[in-house]
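Hey team,

Filing this mostly as a record. A colleague (T.K.) asked me to run one chain through the structure pipeline before their review meeting, and I want the input and output archived in the tracker in case anyone asks later how it was produced. No errors, nothing strange. Just documentation.

Input sequence:
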Amino acid sequence: MSSTSKNNDFNQIIDSPKFSVEYDVLSSLKQEGLKKSDYVEICRRLDRAPNRNELGMFGVMWSEHCCYRNSRPLLKNFPTTGNRILVGPGENAGVVDIGLGQKLVFKIESHNHPSAVEPFQGAATGVGGILRDIFTMGARPIALLNALRFGPLEDEKNISLLEGVVAGISHYGNCVGVPTVGGEVGFDSSYSGNPLVNAMALGLMETEEIVCSGASGIDFPVLYVGNTTGRDGMGGASFASSELSKTSIDDRPAVQVGDPFLEKGLIEACLEAFKTGHVIAAQDMGAAGLTCSCSEMASKGEVGIELNLDLVPAREKEMTAYEFLLSESQERMLFVVKPGSEEELRQLFMRWGLYVEVVGKVLKQKVVKVIHKGQVVANLPASALADDTPIEEHLLNKSTPEYLQEHWKWTEDLLPENLNNGIINIKNNLFISWNNVLLNLLNTPSIASKNWIYKQYDYQIQSNTVVAPGEADAAVIRIRSQNDFITSSNQDRGIASVVDCNDRWVYLDPQRGSMSAVAEAARNLSCVGAEPIAITNNLNFSSPDEPVGFWQLSMSCQGITNACTILNTPVTGGNVSLYNDTKLPNNTVIPIHPTPVIGMVGLIEDINKICKKSWVKDGDQIWMIGLPLEANIKKDKRISLAASSFLEYIHGLKTGRPPEIDLYLEKEVQSFLRKIINKGIINSAHDLGDGGLAVALADCCISSGYGANIVLPPSKSRLDRLLFAEGGPRVLVSCSSNQSLELKKYYEIISIEEPNVFSISHLGTVNNQKKLLVSQANNSIIDVDILDLKDTYKECIYKKISK
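Output structure:
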């Protein structure tokens, strides 16, 4: 339908006595983030005009944050089933079977816009919200991870945002008693006005049955438990679904205020309540608060819910129905419970110092009926709010956007030629040594150690953290259980988890970049010896209303679909965060880099066999598994300097097309890697990521304190390509001389059974000289002290913040 037709329909409704209202429709639609066409559809469905409370309910429930109106057609293509998948998309969190009767629950969500205007509370309540998604299913939270993006730290505003967000995450996680075990942090100018704060949580099921959210049982009581309701968080879902501007600071009241100590009590009380068998359904009050929880519970259960706001515990006086319905006050839950269990549950929650009230009942009629001060203030079809919501139709431009066509013209031939005397010509005869190239890369916040950040997190609480942040390519948590079937023989199982996304790659090729994010997440898990089993994702993108924005989102979803299908890592759910644009005072709109963060989990059968990235002892042999160094020659497009950290941070160029992604090769390399870890053939493993071979070598040296003596084979390839190119499944491993013989023997056995499509290449040895030495044909290329590497790498972010 044309925009003219839609406007005509809207005008007809406004002018019709049948649809007359006592509020200003246009200003109210703007406040709720609704379109004229939305109002026309609402009136058509109701056969009347919505009152002001109902319009607010539609505003939050029809926002992108709640109903995925722009992204739903793309998400349906994700692979969501598999042998281990117990609960996929649609519930509060995904659930996978990890064997021995145990179930893992996990999910990732964003709190971007709230963190932009109130970094501490925005990040803190993001942690609280994702934890509720986990224990609402009947699981005890066991770990947190986060994926963060900020603008350059040369800008004091970005420093303030970083400090506030990290403080918020550490405050909530440390106080609630759940370890923050890993994550990633990136920096780029596109995030200056719109930082990304994505929180991931994992939990182990404690209840026999998975607690779902669909209401059932006509006339069964609806129970409100947890914190009181206030005016904080008003309109948060709508706020999260619009671009940020200078006036966004006025939306500060939309940011919720969290209480981690209260949430700790809520975790314990809920898990105890679920074990009684009295709770039929449960839903946390996250985005859109009471409106979302009661409408989603009703819609999923194909029933209705009556809600009496007069019975809702309030922390402020004279709250209106509108404020009750749209408040996003934290630490609140809604239950449907068995009749007769109310008093037992009341006593249970009161013991934990929590509010608990019967606030409604389940209805046969499929509506959300809201009562306030004895009057019906809203009466809406549940499906219209939570299920049968609008879908925006976007015409996908199948041609590559012009900005990418220009970037993809770049080739390595445009770079100055390398010299053979230990220095590199950057541009215009500006020379720099290879040592300084490496040090400059390690001094880049996106590559440098994030120890300043994770030292603020209590990652050892619960005493199950096997690998501290920064020690390995993935976090590892020991699996414990109170169940009788867990014996001493299987207490050594573990869960590995990771979050990954190279946003530069996604910006320069959304499909390849997204495929790479999935592949790298799986590779990082494989580096510790874990079998990748499933993912959750957080799709952070700019406005889908812009053709380029929707194209990026669409291509990214295709890439995730392809990678997850081939690597057999189904999608269990996640979050979509769109409209991550910053509107400047001159009306210029700056979109973020498209950033589809992949949160992946993997299973470890024996945590005593995991590998970390550090060299283990002097004299160990260093090998690379995957694409050989000689694959760096130009004809192999799976490795390239295009879109690399070296190109951006050394040459000042963010351009080129990222390397091709060979998912079948990834699968072969990762399978081989897991097998040799399980057989005890190698002592360490670390994949080649940002900065390529040289940075990966430096990382292993820094983390261990040992040096390395690397001899590059004769090659026709450029030195910068050999040292700093990125792409492809390539993993550094170390092992003793005897283990090296086993490695070669096992590789040959595997090759006989089925010809390998990858290689193992000997690079050098671990040394105790406290130096990283790289040479080729007796020419020294890199010769740098480990202490210099460590000082540069570990103090980068701290020095930038403390200036």
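Quick notes for T.K.: The first helix runs from residue 3 to 15. The CA atoms of residues 370 and 688 lie 56 Å apart.
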